[in-house]
Amino acid sequence: MTILCVRFQLPPAHEAALPGLLGLLEDFTPVVEALPPDGALADLRGAERYFGRDAVELASVIRVRALAHHGVDCVIGAGPGPMLARMALRDARPGVTRAVAEGEVADFLAGKPVAALPGVGTATARTLCEYGLDTLGRVAAAPLSTLQRLVGAKAGRELHEKAGGVDRGRVVPNGVSRSLATERPFTRDELDPDRHRRALLSAAGELGARLRAVDKVCGTLTLTVRYADRSSTTRTRTLKEPTAHSAALTRTAYEMYEALGLQRARVRALALRAEALGPAEQASHQLTFDPVDEKLRRIEEVADRARAKFGPHAVMPGTLAA
Question: What Rg value do the Cα atoms of the chain yield, rounded?
Answer without folding.
Answer: 22
